Amino acid sequence: MTKQFTVSVFTENKIGLMNRIAIIFTRRRMNIERITVSESEVKGVARITIVVNTTRDAVDKLARQVEKLTEVLKAFVHEDHEVIYQEMALYKMSAKTLSHAAAAKFVKENNARILVEEPEYIVIEKTGTKEETEKLFLELEKYGVLEFARSGRVVVTKPMKELKTYLKELEIELV
Amino acid sequence: MLEKELSKEKAKSSKQITGAEALILSLLEEGVDTVFGYPGGAIMPIYDALYDYQDKINHILVRHEQGAVHAAQGYARVSDKAGVCFATSGPGATNLVTGIADAQIDSTPLVCITGQVASHLLGTDAFQETDVIGISMPITKWNLQVTKPEDIPAAVARAFYIARSGRPGPVLLDITKDAQFGKLHYKYEKCEKIRSYRPYPKLNMGDVDKAVELINKAKKPFILAGHGVLISGAENELRQFAEKTGIPVAVTLLGLSAIPTDHQLYVGFLGMHGNYGPNIKTNECDLLIAVGMRFDDRVTGDISKYAKQAKVIHIEIDPSEINKIVKADVAVNSDAKEALKALSERVSKASHEKWMQEFRDCKKLEYEKVEQHDLYPGGKGLKMAEVVRLISEKASADAIIVTDVGQHQMVTSRYYNYRKPNTNITSGGLGTMGFALPAAIGAKVGKPGSDVIAIIGDGGFQMTLQELGTINQSKMPVKIVILNNNFLGMVRQWQQLFYEKRYSSVEMINPDFVMIAKGFNIESAKVTERSDIEAAIGKMLDHKGSYLLEVVVEKEENVFPMVPTGASVAEIRLE
User: Which of A1, B416, B482, B497 is most buried by its number of CB atoms within 10 A?
Assistant: First the structure.
C-alpha cells in the first residue's frame, strides 16, 4: 500500500551530496514530492527532509541505501503521524484585484499574515500543512494569484530520542 | 651521486612539492607498487612526477582505459590490495566507466585517479572536460574532485580507506590540472576513521545465538557461500563451520574457489547455469545459511518461488543487502569471517548423511544426463567442457582462471576444479564482455608466482583484444584460451530456446586469431581436432612467455542445466 513518508537524512555538509541522494531515488523510480535542506542541531551536520509516496518496504530499503553513502550519518523514515511538520507558502496578489480589506479577511480566517504591501501588489504568507496552504490558494485564486510558491516540508519528530543520542549509539564523534 | 645530492638539497631548500608529486608519494604511503594507466593532457603533471619514481611504481601502459580498469580489478582480486588506475579527463575518464561499474557490483577495491581540466575551466565545456564526478556517482563507493594541491594527501588517504574497508568497492579521485601543478607542504596521514562511515558492523551475539538455535535444529540445512567469504578471507572458517555441522556447501559464481571443489561437503555451483542439486535442494532444504552473498536474480530465479519452505540465516556485512531480496529470519550483520568463527564455536557437532546423499543422487543424475556428454563427448566437434576439463587436469592448483562472459564462463564455472582460494576471476554482477583479457594481465601482475589462464569466447576477446599490445610491451606471461564457436554463443542459445531459432546478429565472421597474436609477438596455435587438444594445452602451459591457444569448438552447443528466466530454481532443466 502506498503511503506518504518523510525521510530525514542527516549528512555531512559536502558538495554533491544532494545529487548522490537524489540518484538513489531516481534509480528506484521514486518521485521526490518535496525536499528541504537545512542545518541540524548538530554542528556541521545537514538535515535533508524528503517526502515520498511509496510503500513501507520500498522506503525502508531506500533508507538503507541512503545510509550506505559514506557521508550520510543516519536516515530516519517516519509516517505523517510520527512527525510534526509545516510548509510555508507565499501568495503574490495584485493590489488591483484584492483590496486591503479582503486580504485582511483572508489572513485572519486562515491564520496567515501579510508579509509585504506595495501599491501594486500584496504578498501573503501562510504556514501550515499542504492541505491548509492549498485551501488558501483555492480561495485566493478567484482574485488572480500572480505568483505562488510553497516550500518543502520542515519536520521535527515526535519521539523524544534526539539525533545526538543516535549518533552516540553509533559511536559517532560529535565535533 | 651528484644528482641525488642536488635533489636532496632542492628538497631541503624548497620544502614544497607539487600536487602531482604529492599524489605519487601518497600512493607509495599506501603501498602501491603498480598503476595501470594511459596518459593524456589533463593528467600530464602526474605522469611527469611518476617519471622520477619508475623504480618504485611499475606503470603498465594499457591500450585503452577500459583495459586499465579491468587490469586493476584483476590485480585487486588476487592481491588483497586496491587496484590503481590513471586516466586523463574526458574520454579517458569515460572509458573507465564500464570497469568502475563492474567493480562496484562485484565489490572490488579500486582507486581510480582521473586528471581534470584546470578548476577555472570547470563547467565551461573546455577541451576534454567531462563531469566524471557526476557520471561516476552511482557506480562508485565514493568519489571526490580535488581542486587544491594541499587537499591531495588527505583525499588519497580517504580513498584507500574507503575502497578497502568493509564491503570493498571502487572510488574515484578527479584531480584538476592546477591542483597537480600547484605546490603544497606535504605531510601524509593515513585515514583510519570517518565519522559518518561504519564499515565493520559489530557482531551481535544475540543474532549469533538465534542462528545457532536454527542450525542445531535443522534437519536439512544448506550453506550458500558467496564472494563475501573470499573478501573477508574466511575460507578456513567456512570449512570448519561446514565440517563441524556436516552441512553441504554450494557457491555462487563469485563464491567459486571459496571451498575446494573436491571437498566432500561441496555440492556445486548455484544459479541459472549452476548444478542441478544446489538449485533443486534450495527449494527442499529447511534452513538456508547464506554467507556473504546477495541473492542475485541469477541465483534465485523467480523470487516468489524461492526457498519459501526454508528458514533463512543471512550473514552479510552490508546492511542494505539484508532483507533486500530474501527476508531473513535471522540476520547476522557482520564480516563473514567473524560470524563464521562465532558460529563454529557455538554450534553442535552434527552430520547430515542422508541429506548429503540426496545431493550425491542429484549429482549422479546430472552426470548421466549432462556432464558425461559434455566432458567426454563422442561427436566430431570439440566441446567447451572437455577443453576446460583438460586445462583443469593440467594446470597447477594455484593457477588463476580468468573468464569472460557467456557460455565459456558458465562451462568453466561448472567444470573447472578450483582448489585454492581466489583462483576464479570473472565479471559476475555486471557481466562485462571484454573483461577477461585485461583482468588476466592485472591478475598476473598481482600474483606473479601463479600461472594465469584466461578462458575467453571469440566475441568477448574481440572487445578488448588490443590489450595484447599491453602483454607484448609489459612481457606479462598470460595464457589465453579462445573457445571459438563463431557465435555469440549465449545469445544464440537463448535465441534457439526462446526465440524460435531466429538467429539475429549472433554469427561472428572472425579474424585469424593466430595471425593476430603473431602481430603482437605472442606465441600461438589453433586446434580443431580432439586428438590435438591435450598436447596443445600442455604446450601452452609449459611455454615460458604468453601464449594464445585458439580452440575451435562446436558451433551450436548449449549450456545445461538451465533455469529459464522467470522460472523457479525447482524448474531447472537438464536438457
Answer: B482
